[in-house]
Protein 1
Amino acid sequence: MTYFPEEVVEHIFDFLATHRDRNTVSTVCKTWYRVERLSRRSVFVGNCYAVHPERVVARFPGLRSLTVKGKPHFADFNLIPHDWGGFSLPWIETAARGCPGLEELRLKRMVVSDESLELLARSFPNFKVLVLISCEGFSTDGLAAIATYCRVLRELDLQENEVEDRGPQWLSCFPDSCTSLVSLNFACLKGEVNAGSLERLVARCPNLRTLRLSRAVSIDTLSKILARAPHLVDLGTGSFTIDHRAEAYHKVMNNFIKCKSLRSLSGFWDAAPRCLPAVYPICGNLTGLNLSYAPAIQCADLIKLIHRCSKLQRLWILDCIGDKGLAVVANTCKELQELRVFPSDFYGGGIAAVTEEGLVAVSSGCPKLSSLLYFCNQMTNAALITVAKNCPHFTRFRLCILDPKKPDPVTNQPLDEGFGAIVQSCKDLRRLSLSGLLTDRVFLYIGMYAERLEMLSIAFAGDSDKGMVYVLNGCKNLRKLEIRDSPFGDAALLEDVGKYETMRSLWMSSCDVTLGGCKTLAAKMPGLNVEVINERDESDEMEESPSDLGRVEKMYVYRTVAGPRNDAPDFVWTL
Amino acid sequence: MEVSVSDFDNLKATELRLGLPGIDAPEKPAPVSPRGSKRALLKANEECWPGTSKSLEADTSNQEAQPMAKAQVIGWPPIRSYRKNSFKARKAEVEAAGLFVKVSMDGAPYLRKIDLKVYKGYKELREALDNMFRCFSTGELSGMEGCNGSEYAITYEDKDGDWMLVGDVPWEMFISSCKRLRIMRRSEATGMPSSP
């Protein structure tokens, strides 16, 4: 291969689809490194602190698409203090200087300011795609800048961000000349929307295929939009409150009938059950359905809807669907690949929602099921063993029993055997989240069988250091390990310090790791950042100097070539 | 007062610890933080599982795992704050609004308004309506069990605009779908189907 001209090598590299493969070929020899870096168009940075933005931009000057992730996953659950970090500005500034040809930026769990959005909008003349997931720090003013200056914008996708509302005018900032939109998702915005601007925008973008509306968009507006854009493939419905006796209901139903391409529905923020029949005409075509933000729709109406959705591949739903409803899913949705059942009552003790029965039913009726997120009140080993047998193709299995440390209610045993069956049967399992009462035994199984496991989430589980050691020793492909409230201490942490350089990151909170243990890890492994997070209380007058024997509340360890970061707040100590 | 051996045992039983009552967990050092021990105790109350601060009267002779107190552990259940916030906001909207609905009674010259939220169930509601409209009727109001003795039936208009007999569905479901109430004369009510 080294005798081929570089253009041929570059052409061959074009066929490498994954980042991993491209990263690998770049390490073969200097020539390949050079060819690869100059032809690389897309880079994925899983941890924004693992590398300096300057280094990325310098190595890949032809960069067109950049994805960066910031805070660790547990930030989603308020376990990371607000100003921990993950700032997008340095990345945008550096890219603005070093690769003005940037077309796509995807950020997850990062702090994005209006300033950085404005800089982004002005710096890249060819900018086409902006995706922000679980980000914060910006307002609708930042969106206005994007709308105003990104002349060839194709995608603006805002997923579950906390956005400050500064008024509806941002939508009107898309110039009349903007006709390039293919995907627009502003479902997470809380403020008013200018209906007229929205309708005109939709009317002049003939390629629009994804449109997810926020709660403020009325059914009237939705109806007009559907009339103008019957080619939509993915729709977020907005509030979807109709008075079913009104004309609006029939109009909207008629407009839905015209949407022959519609494959995915979400939204339904305020939908009352009687309004659902408006979407019955297109249910037969749906491959994706997200009703997880529609608490007003109860089991009986969910069932009536799902009966019609025989082609469903992805279903996100609230647990008010109940085991009965899940049985209907099992009978109807034979193509189902992904199921997420969210709790409607967060603190348990509510109406018994879903149990192990629902999951067993779905596993037996939907053999293609490969991705699961399931919040339930209880689970049994027998059920998990059955599920494992029925569905050996799981790649993602996340089970959350709402009551921490709850045992199998039938046998009163821990759920070790059940999860053991899952990891043994599902050879392709890449992501696993555990819950319920669990001893070290489950980790023995995970270490033994979960060869492809890349991400493991542990909470309130295990008896001793042995548990964590089984995992670190056994899971060869482990990239992210996050642990909370489990009895793992320094012995486990320091058992195999080299392991952490093969992983993206390790998070431990409310465990038994001490400051001394963290310091030892940091000393032994200079290629890691060992961050200890200590939230301060204003009422404390005297700062005691912490002892090495003291337990560390929150610790975040990650491999990096960037050294300790310079933007860490006071309460983060990088050892 | 003398401290006898049994008193000492009881004292140990009421000690605040990080763990289930009855389990002899090894003494763990206080967590490291600038706040020192004060914070440790605070954290023990807020974050540790199960609710140890509640176990002052724990029965230590009960060695098996006790049912978990419904304390709120930080970051549990693991649901994205975006989702939690949007549900919280919705709940707050509903709660702030109160649930005032008009109540009309056939033959009465004026209507009343009641807040459904203040009643815990159908019995209380019935009693309240009874009190409110006593002056307009000769007998007792009853629409719940459909007892023949009563002159009236209590009905409600639901979110879909249908008139339903009060009492068929669980209370929570009823108050979330009831838009107004009508105390209907039996003679009119007998023609009605009892439930949809």
Protein 2
Amino acid sequence: MKFQIEDVTVYFPYDNIYPEQYAYMVELKRALDAKGHCLLEMPTGTGKTIALLSLITSYALSKPSNPIKFIYCTRTVHEMEKTLSELKLLHNYQLQHLGPAAKILALGLSSRKNLCINPTVVSAENRDSVDAACRKLTASWVRELAAENPRIPTCSFFENYEKSASEAILPPGVYTLQDLRAYGKLKGWCPYFLARHMVQLANVVVYSYQYLLDPKVAGIISKEMQRESVVVFDEAHNIDNVCIEALSVSVRMQTLEGATRNINRMSQEIDRFKATDAGRLRAEYNRLVEGLALRGDLPASDAWLANPALPNDILKEAVPGNIRRAEHFLSVLRRLVQYIRGRLQTENVEKEGPVAFVASVNTQAGIDQKMLRFCYDRLHSLMLTLEISDTDEFLHIQTICDFATLVGTYTRGFSIIIEPFDERMPHIPDPVLQLCCHDASLAIKPVFERFQSVVITSGTLSPIDLYPRLLNFNPVVSRSFTMSLTRDCICPMVLTRGSDQLPVSTKYDLRSDPGVEKNYGKLLLEMVSVVPDGIVCFFVSYSYMDGIVNSWHETGLLKEIMQHKLVFIETQDVVETTLALDNYRKACDCGRGAVFFSVARGKVAEGIDFDRHYGRLVIMFGVPFQYTLSRILLARLEYLRDTFQIKEGDFLTFDALRQAAQCVGRVIRSKADYGMMIFADKRYSRHDKRSKLPGWILSHLRDAHLNLSTDMAAHIAREGIKEEGSQMIIKVAVLDLSIACDST
Amino acid sequence: MADKQQQVVVKRARHKSSVKDPGTPGVLKLTKDRFTFMPNDPSSPVKHNVEFRTIKGHKFTKDGTKQALLNLTQDQGGNYIFEFENFPDRNVCKDFVASAIALSGEAGRTVPEKSAVPIQDEQLSAAEMERRIKLLQEDSDLQKLHKQFVIGGILSEAEFWATRKKLLEQNYSRRPKQRVALKNDMWSTKPLADGQSNRVTFNLTPEIILQIFAEKPAVRQAYLNFVPNKMTEKEFWTKYSRAEYLHSTKNVIAAAAEAAEDEELAVFLKQDDMLVNEARKKIRQVDPTLDMEADEGDDYMHLPDHGLPRNDNKDVLDSQYEPYRRSFSQHLNQHAAVVLQGRVIDVELGDTRSVAEALARTKHAELAKDASDVYLDKERLERISRMTEIEDLQAPRDPAVAPLSIKDPRDYFDSQQANAFSTLGDTVSGAKQLKCSVSTREAYCSLKECISEIKFQGLTEPTINSEVAFKVLNGLAQNISSNKYHLGRNPNESVLDSLPKITREELLLHWSSIQELLKHFWSSYPITTKYLLTKATKLKDAMSQIYPKLQEIKESVQSDLRHQVSLLVQPMLQALDAAFAHYDADVQNRSARSGERPNGF
């Protein structure tokens, strides 16, 4: 359908539209008009993504003289694929109605691992080895050598791409990662470099959060994006965590050992170059004297991860004299590693601010703040000079330099925590030094400054006034939408007691109580026998899930559950989890029915939809609080209290409940869908906890469903499923009639 | 598991002279051509040694009844009753006896009139027998018919089943898909320790072995490599059990130590490399909207040591022990995947080696196929684009209808009767069955036609009073749903169910027996042999016995129901009349012709 919002004609690829989608578009348009940032909460299952895409592309089409670029950030690659396929749908519709004028270029961007089509490279095991394998074939020095010596292997796709030079462009259209690979294969061009090049020219770019938020990646990918862009962070309820993680580093013993190996290797290389090609080292020295940390025009294939500090904070001055010479720099690194090693020997937990740490480095290792700040750039330059292409081997020293640069750059919003062992396993020494960032606003600040509109949106942004404080920005529009419903398509309930009427909870004192474990198991057993198709269970942590599943196995409960449905489980191994998910879907598709065990805050909870028959019921076992004894969390809470006056308890509850809401929200994707949600913990019945749930869940939570026991919940589930089934009957009856007509 | 090679069956049983008799405990031994019974008490006079040649038939009690009985009837009229301790024992013997009788029956019969009895006593394999018994057990109506006609002597066993070949086959061919999926039951590695000694026992059945092979390709591969060249089968499983035991103790370090000493044991203890490789291949096939592995590629925060360490993965172990760690979750996923895939091979379970080989083959073929499947890719893309659409904002495109398949004949009968009432037609139900599996497209087309017709007519018609329209719609909706209700299994409101229970049962019984008899009756025409002639006569007699019973029913019911009942009975009577008419005509024809040709045919 096609309609006007003020001066913009919106092309919407469906025949109908939900009222809240329309309202959402109106608010979004206001924000775009005002060239300001906005914060929008809209329940899952109301077609948020298509509303966003449809409005922003239509907005861009209506202003051809001053085209805006649209940068859409997703948390995961599979969400990227989903978004792109929705965009494809929309684009086809716009082409139909507007003709060639609607042509846009939209593409997804990911790492080499997901885009490379060179079979020898892509077969490498992980991202870093793929990157390194690519670099071994495409680095400028390798190609120079290959030009003289044809026996040195290069990548034909990259060579072809380079040869075509300015002709290598993507025709307009919408390209998913798979489409990019297919196009690359067709043309013989490297899809990765092609995509990276086209990102600058595209109308719509879809990529991961980190490509904007993590300065290491943003520095090489996103630094040339125009100001007239609309940046959207979808599913942004966790954005503060992404921001703080982007600026955090941790160092372990293994890191130090690896770094020492790296330093030794570099010093060998330096010796070798001194013997064979001393001019190269001298050239680097001269360049550094002139004040250039890096050669300005690096070929794309040489680019490594950029400086971990934010672009505004990077010093634009010459590298200090005492680390200009390669061997001097290496000895500084050696001293730094030695110093950190010494700090890790501690027997007690230590916590200090960056300033104190830098001062102590200065006195004990003789490395001043400025040298620390330049560590990363100096390392990068040295690696280029030494022509090191197996970068995956050098991650350890890179970590050390990241740490040094960050600690040398920032004086507030960070702390350094050294723990000699894990709190939960005091007998195993596992010293770790963590530089943790507490201030989410740091990483996102450049984004707010650089782009004219930033849209932060998700299904769960409650309480909505907290986000502007956490991220420190002023939205021009900040609204929360409710869902308009013709029928109850979600049915949340709070289960407080098990079948034996004893309370259930994952609270610390009840957590390992066998009675609670049994009650939880019984609950699931009841549900698998009542609910058809898929059921998803979320647990509070991996260790809790492992424990409880094992105990269900030992007591035979698991066996009983398996008599009704197949059981799949999320593990820490993504490959395995992905395959398990795939099988889970197959089991739901074929009618066998299955249960998926997953973890709140885990990868599955973050990005996988369990809509329609893939999830008729979701059970949240417990309240997913963070591990409250974690020093990092405590430090962050302290920081939040001191700077934003946010109470510890409030923040913890807010954080736990947004995770819970996020988990249960996975079951519904459209209003034709139906899903039940069980919050299985007595603490959910308390008002202070419950009220933190988003409005669209609360509005469906009836008073009668606030304090249920297992048998009552099973009854409600049974009735709910039945009612839902009866709604389908009319459709079936009509079909029956037609068959009858046909046969008589 | 009745094995064909199984030559001797020995079971504990009691011999009874009659059903009430407490019986003499002893041992029943069955061989190919005879059975012997030795009482536990050697002084007891009850000893038997009987050849199967003399045994005419066998009867048995149903599973789950009070006693597990097997009754062998002898030619001369005597019989032997055995009571078993449990039903499985009995069933083993029963199957064995069935095949033995069939075997000896054929061998024993010297030269029977073969032409006259074309399919008298086919030799039945145990499997065939089992299948028939299972069918009878599952379907009580069939069982009733079987009892009435086969045991009543109107039809022979073979004749009865001959018309149901399809049922048998269908049942058989569907087997690998639906009937016996793998048990969704993890072979719990919990060993049976007897508490006193240090011995631990594991139980392995062929079913479990199949499961192990399917879930753990490395064990399968090891089996193929090691047995029988390097070790015997027994040694192999002992070693495997030892490995499982080590895992169950969760002592990773002990496992690693043992593995270091014994390289064969290490195969079981290490992580399954084949699984890992398989996973890597499979991951390329996965729906990209699920592919979490791809995320790792974009995740620059969780570079080793970047970002905040996740709170959970704190299971620190030396890297040398890493390969020996195995998680329960992994096992769980693998198990579910295998169960979901179902039984992929069709091999007798007893032979471990062939099972292993067959599994290896299918796996290989599967992986080879995966590599180059463009079609799959396309299908996946289509699926994604379908999934991305928001269904309720979109006008519906393809209707999601599945072809009807009616399983329970009673349901079918109910619905047919209801139809008969509504249309007042006298369709004999058989013809309709074919129409029930209308393809999706056909159904859709017809629906569309109806709608367009309505649209068209609605346009030509002057405007309808909205109240009337509402009434009609309401009525329609109610009618549809109530009709649906009738067709369902609501016990109180179906047409048939309004009848008294006895009448209903009787009617149903007669209906099914008439169906059965008519089927056989018509299938014996044209009559070409004497055998068929006698069969037809027998069938006609049986039918003429039912005829008056139907009349009786019609008259016995209360007057208000009589109309309905007569409507029900009418088609049956008509069918019977037609059969009788045909029979009479044929007899006349025959006698007229027999004058011309005195020697019969």
Protein 3
Amino acid sequence: MVMKKVLILGGILMAGIIGYFSIQHINQTSWEPVSIQHISQPSCQPVRQTDLNENFSVLPRMSYRQPFVDKPQRTDVLLMSPWLAPIVWEGTFNRDILNAQYRQKNFVVGVATFAVKKYIRFIEGFLGSANKFFLSGHRVNFYLFTDNPEKVPSIKLAPEKRLFIIPVQNYSRWQDISMNRMDIISNHIRSHWRYEVDYLYSMDIDVQMFEHIGVEIIDTLVGTISSWLYTTPRDSNSYERRPESRAAIPRGEGDFYYAASFYGGSVSEVYKLTTACFKGVTEDRANGIEAKWHEESHLNKYLLYHKPTRLLSPEYYWDEELIRPRIIRVKRLSSVRKDLKEVRF
Amino acid sequence: MTCWKVVKSVLVLCLILIPIFVWMIVWNGPVHYLPYYLPCPEIFSMKLQYAEEKPVQLFPELFYPQPRSLDQKRRDVLTLTPWLAPIVWEGTFNSELLDSAYKPLNLTIGVTAFAIGKYTMYVGRFMESAEKLFMKGYRVNYYIFTNNPQAIPKVQLQPGRSLRIVPIKKYSHWQEISMRRMEAINRHIAEVSHQEVNYLFCLDIDMVFHYPWGVETLGEMVAAIHPGYYKVPRSQFPYERRSSSAAFIPDNQGDFYYAVFGGLVKQVYEFTRACHMTILADKANGIMAAWQEESHLNRHFFSHKPSKLLSPEYVWDDTKPKPPEVRLIRFSTVNKDYREIRD
């Protein structure tokens, strides 16, 4: 009797306890912590945290040789312009560190190149070598402008590289084809490239790459020093000198002579560059004058007054006709041997 | 005996029912617990509207010697880091060229300096030399953090330059004062300076300018190389070597040993926040880094490389003899007796 009563009492007690907690459990699906001011703030993180801000590129632990302040890497060439823009030469940078910094940012780089009329024959060499050596491992969109889309050979690209073939009008004069590139690039940036890529580079199609060109080229406004004119004094540089042209640079001015075969930068800076240069080209045409080296003269004028934030040494565009001296330790990108008279006309 | 049986059976019942109950809870949803958050000032998550950032744009016509590709002015020192950040030495830049680009941008540059306790005696010399040599021709705001605003002398300032005194608390130990600088700068940026200045430099008050410090030092994230350690191998850098600290850097790693920092206000804000978090993490673990916030600064710069470095010309120690590579000393320490001024 007594046992029964105790059992019943025990049972009711247990049922009461379980019931109490179950009701609480039904009302809230978890034990909610007491609300404390700073928990609601997403930036207050638990104790060990490495990646605090997406603007900083947090680098993983890497091992590489220590840079010594009293031991310069190269003493034979200029490594920085007077406005403190780095000039990229072989031996001055560590691509692993640059890759680690770049990878976190998820940038997409675009390359605009034109293959019109007979220049279609260079597409295979360009794309094949670019696929292997240009920003390998990073996302790149190749925008190939051509007047003959059917003739573009099909090339297998790495998974992070994409090819877009865009039909374009051809002109009778090769100089016009060359100069109108600026206009076409500027229009495409405005219409859709600014949504697709972060950085844009314009390259000539009649080139091949022999060595890796990596993220050391990525910066806001980048120009390549010409391989023909990297040693010449400013007054003998091939700047346009006639004051009637919009590309004229007066004597006594000038930093470097930049090659129009490879330039680029952030999408907004390239837009400003191409718009300004093509405006100069149009005004010159209206005045019946054509600059000495066509759009390259306009490019040089622009880059004189809007200094590039990074310069590429002639390693990044080496003209095949030149004998390579020892200071050019590496030939990364070079023009393909061709008969200019045959291919242009 | 029956009582004992009853008690046993009730106990067994409990032992069976409680695990079932717990299992029910766990099955139905995640168990929430109170995470250990550090005491965190509200300002850490404020969205700040920064003074408009102006990129360097147009360089007007100017006459200066042509840069020549094969002609390096400084062959004796490193001028580019392996991540292509420039190292600013005398001879590598042209001041007029840079001034011609930066002056039209109407920039305001901020300087923070801490003058706590007896350090207020250095304010006069610091400010007088800064008036003559720091960013001449630009708008400058001096932010002097002090616990004793009355002790700050009145210094005659050029037009466009202003002095703001920021009162802060004095802590009992000088190490604590030193480490709290990150928090104080961060808080101040969030509350005041993010709208007033474009660039901010965090300097030490017990130093004096001897040569011009100009816009060649402006950059996204700028750090100066410490004068005592720019020639030694990395294993001899005074990094924090205890692995339990958040500022730990192993023996075979490290680029340079940095002393002073600055840069765009936005980057300085993020940087000081990160350093303060790591300092708090160390506090929670009961450890203090070897060189206080300087160790945390170096740890941070190791994994977030600065975009521009300043040579030791920009932060020199006068007790050291001047080596040939350091052609000019722009900013250096004043000789003092540490025991006398620290406590």
Protein 4
Amino acid sequence: MVLSAAERAAVRALWTKLGSNVGVYATEALERTFLAFPTTKTYFPHFDLTPGSAQVKAHGKKVADALTRAVAHLDDLPTALWALSDLHVRQLRVDPVNFKLLGHCLLVTLARHYPGDFSPAMHASLEKFLSHVISALASSYG
Amino acid sequence: MVHFTAEEKAAVVSLWAKVNVELVGGEVLGRLLVVYPWTQRFFDNFGNLSSESAIMGNPKVKAHGKKVLTSFGNAVKHMDDLKDTFAELSELHCDKMHVDPENFKLLGNMILIVLATHFSKEFTPQVQAAWQKLTAAVANALAHRYH
């Protein structure tokens, strides 16, 4: 399911609109993930996971930067995200199913903040984009 | 059996009261067919599903979406007894419609996302978590009688 030119344009346009708020939304997505899918908290025993936590905010910024890099490299996600994939596989050893859970919560966050932009077509483009990112992240699992 | 706290039940019931079942149902099913196009396999007789606008405007999609979400309303009324509430529907989806239960999870996620677009203010992380639990439990209940 390759992203079409129209889908890429849609994702890039939305990302431009998000501007400097990507970090805020990624943090909200993380908070939602921890609440909706408590099993994901097992990867963060060293974090303060209470709402407003500085650690979660910092981590949200990291996730946001990675996603922004992904948007800038839609033509070659596996290469662009290789180092992150290696990190998640070898060091963090995160079960890939969790990437989908965060992806879903990111969609919920964006849908909530940009309902007018979140048409079914935009939703489909974002879903595809995220599944490509997840695929690239999971690529080091072999 | 899934246990819902009083807060979770309250979160679900209060948001459900605001839902326009006809409108939201049509949107939920429409988005399922747009975002996960393979789900169209169950709706060959629905006519034109060739584009986003065709799907979202399709009267059969809207009608069926309303039917599905009305049934979901039953879940809200019987949160402590989902397996029995959906026993018959579970058998139907297995024996007559041959629907992979994975699709129930996809539909559940569509419900969440449509609620988020309609109720930005109310759809806090806590409210989402309660609804996430409900849609997962309904998906399990619908899959329970599969054989």
